[in-house]
Specification:
This protein has 523 residues and is an all-beta fold.
């Protein structure tokens, strides 16, 4: 493009004549000699291109725009606002002039937010420096910790203050962010509170976050959202945390495979059965950490006696009573007795747990006579020795058969003994006979085998002789007698089959026959 057009007169001397004419002269720019900024850089986000400009053009030595660039390129170098060089250097790729203009709007500078200038250099021309412009942070897109949560947290106890920072993609704090929300989520089944916080100058502070969860490892997920800035939506950061139990708050009784307790006998269990007491915090977590995990736990009751080893020391929150030989000493019940398991925490509070136990009769140890033997017994005739009720040491009636001892007693001496079993629900006995001398003052003595100290006695009764079976002379007749004279008195006694005088009041007819020496009857 011509810079200007001028006309110049020309004088010719031809045969003394002067001829005059006009010639147009086109003036164009000279060769490129310098560069000039035509559009200054504007404020931009770090990592983004300029919305417009900067632009640089070529000039000749007389400041005329040059359109012929001859493949001349220009580079832009970022410097501080005071024109001091930066380290590391941020420099654009070479941009070739087109029709004398170079557009550097695509220069995507990444730098810390602040004030800067650009230095443009092309060929061997003198560099030119832009006016000051500002680089701002990029859009929020990253969450980083300023103060991370602790790695361990007691369930139900507020988490110490935790602080997140919102950064752009280049690690710059987005101080202008006052709208991004961050919400905390965690494992299903946990209960969370104070989970949402909003950024203030690019900083998100969580105060009073509380988590109630089972003990063990959990993951906290911090997720950001901002309706105005899509780049931060659904950006999240996770944090591993171990939840430990709170202090002891209650006791839980765990009972498996218990056989029906019998009064006065140690508790017994099926294979794999047990009686354990767990120390729980207020959220139901087993207390496996802290000073309360090894408490000593005692067992008692106000309604039934408790014997055996009545305390057990917990190990990592569990006290095992399975081998303590616990015994319930009281009256049989189907409705149950409450045993109270209790302990005092390190804070001085009392915590308790309850368990109901039914109770059946224990070991037979004593008897009650319900049916007396007859007042008169024939020594040759079987008789019913009565009936009893069987009780344990706590006066519970024992329904099962037990080995019982029945003794015939006279004064202070046992005359005979039999070990028998009560054969039915009424606890009656098979008929007995006794081969002893007929007499009064006999008794039966009863006791459970092994518990003779609890023996009981029947009323006294008489044992009479058997039926008449033979005669025996008490006084023999005289050796001789006068004919037709009276015979001296003599007497006989009636005996049973075992030679005991018959004392039953049986009527016996005695016939006297007189025989001669040849054993013939005399008339």
């Amino acid at each position: 493009m011509p810079l200007a057009t001028t006309s110049s007169p020309t004088h010719l001397n031809d045969n003394g004549n002067i001829v005059s004419t006009t010639q147009n002269i086109e003036v164009i720019a000279g060769d490129a000699a310098k560069i000039q900024i035509t559009e200054q850089p504007t404020t931009k986000q770090t990592g983004a291109t300029f919305s417009s400009g900067p632009k640089v053009r070529l000039l000749d030595a007389f400041n005329n725009p040059v359109t012929i660039s001859d493949n001349i390129t220009v580079t832009a170098t970022l410097v501080a606002s005071n024109s001091a060089a930066l380290s590391p250097v941020t420099q654009s790729s070479a941009v070739t002039f087109t029709n004398g203009i170079a557009d550097l709007s695509g220069f995507d500078i990444v730098a810390l937010p602040g004030s800067y200038r650009l230095v443009f250099e092309a060929s061997n021309f003198a560099p030119v420096t832009s006016s000051v412009f500002v680089i701002t942070v990029a859009d929020p897109s990253i969450l980083t910790w300023q103060t991370p949560p602790p790695s361990d947290l007691v369930t139900g106890i507020n988490m110490p203050q935790s602080i997140l920072e919102i950064h752009d993609a280049y690690g710059n704090l987005v101080t202008g962010d006052n709208s991004t929300e961050v919400i905390i989520t965690s494992t299903a089944g946990s209960t969370l509170s104070r989970t949402v916080a909003t950024a203030q100058n690019g900083v998100v502070t969580f105060n009073g976050f509380n988590m109630i969860a089972a003990t063990g490892s959990h993951t906290l997920k911090f997720t950001a959202s901002n309706s105005n800035v899509a780049s931060i939506n659904d950006v999240s950061i996770s944090h591993a945390i171990t939840i430990s139990n709170d202090v002891a708050a209650s006791l839980e009784v765990e009972l498996v495979g218990l056989q029906t307790p019998k009064a006065g006998l140690p508790l017994t269990f099926d294979a794999g059965g047990y009686l354990k007491v767990n120390i729980l915090d207020r959220f139901g977590n087993l207390v496996t950490t802290g000073d309360d995990r090894d408490l000593t736990i005692g067992v008692s009751s106000v309604a039934v006696g408790v014997a055996g080893s009545t305390t057990s020391s917990a190990v990592v929150g569990v006290a095992d009573f399975s081998a303590n030989g616990l015994k319930l000493e009281g009256t049989e019940t189907s409705t149950g007795y409450n045993l109270i398991f209790s302990s005092t925490t390190t804070r001085g509070t009392t915590i308790i747990g309850r368990q109901s136990f039914t109770l059946s009769p224990g070991v037979a140890s004593k008897l009650q006579l319900t049916t007396q033997p007859p007042v008169t017994i024939s020594r040759t005739v079987p008789f019913a020795p009565g009936a009893v009720k069987i009780f344990d040491a706590f006066d519970n009636e024992v329904e099962t058969s037990s080995n019982l001892v029945v003794q015939l007693w006279n004064g202070t001496t046992s005359k005979s003994e039999a070990v028998v079993a009560a054969s039915n629900d009424a606890h009656t006995f098979e008929a007995l006979t006794y081969n002893v001398a007929p007499s009064t003052g006999y008794q039966l003595r009863y006791f459970v085998q092994g518990y003779e100290d609890n023996a009981i006695f029947s009323r006294t009764f008489e044992i009479t002789s058997g039926d008449a079976a033979s005669l025996s002379f008490l006084v023999q007749p005289a050796g001789s007698a006068t004919i037709n004279a009276g015979i001296a008195p003599f007497s006989v006694e009636v005996l049973d089959a075992d030679g005991y005088r018959v004392n039953t009041g049986e009527s016996v007819t005695v016939t006297l026959n007189l025989k001669d020496s040849g054993n013939s009857n005399c008339h």
